[in-house]
């Protein structure tokens, strides 16, 4: 109020007015910046405390603190990721799927791949196999060496009757080091390391015999 009354009762030169307004804008910018830092620090603090509870097995307590971190920073991809993981452990699958969707929305490329992968796993767990295949495929578009995505996509394909697709995905997963895929293939397809056989070309049809003239 004092500042407003000063402007309204004291005639100022244009140059002085510009200086005062510039100083005010700097002050406001500093306050906004310090506020952003405080929000970031509080979000990180809530996240760290939530992660500590998560490691101790207090999933409900962890979820509350991850939620407070997200309230302080609505674009906190890691907080969504860990809250989704806690929700998944508690079998709150719709909530986990929602959190993984936010990881995809706010995360960098690697986080997006993890978000698609984790959401695909939950879809597999709930029987939504077509959605799972889509999510694993999107994860692999971002990270072509994600062995787990190949393995779990193979599981989803087997549930939809695509056994050839399962074999191909398990084979890729095993090549990338997935031990579960390798164990399955060693048990049921011991020759899986061999290159696939090329199809044998069919012989060209023989020309019809021409009738012999008498």
Describe what this molecule looks like in 3D.
By secondary structure, the protein is mostly helical. Among the domains are: 67 residues, Serine Threonine Protein Phosphatase 5, Tetratricopeptide repeat, CATH 1.25.40; 61 residues, Alpha Horseshoe (Serine Threonine Protein Phosphatase 5, Tetratricopeptide repeat), CATH 1.25.40. Helices cover 74% and strands 0% of the residues. The chain is built from 10 helices and no strands. α8 runs antiparallel to α9. The longest helix has 43 residues. The radius of gyration is 30 Å and the shape is elongated. The N and C termini lie far apart (124 Å). The relative contact order is 0.05. The N terminus is likely disordered.
Keyphrases for this structure?
214 residues; mainly alpha; Serine Threonine Protein Phosphatase 5, Tetratricopeptide repeat; 0% strand; elongated; disordered N terminus
Concise account of the structure shown:
By secondary structure, this protein is an all-alpha fold. It contains 10 helices and no strands. Among the domains are: 14-80, Serine Threonine Protein Phosphatase 5, Tetratricopeptide repeat, CATH 1.25.40; 131-191, Tetratricopeptide repeat domain (Serine Threonine Protein Phosphatase 5, Tetratricopeptide repeat).
Which secondary structure elements does this structure contain, and how are they paired or packed?
Elements lengths: L1 H8 L4 H43 L2 H14 L4 H13 L3 H14 L2 H17 L3 H14 L4 H13 L3 H13 L3 H10 L26
Helix pairs in contact: 2-3, 3-4, 4-5, 4-6, 5-6, 6-7, 6-8, 7-8, 8-9, 9-10
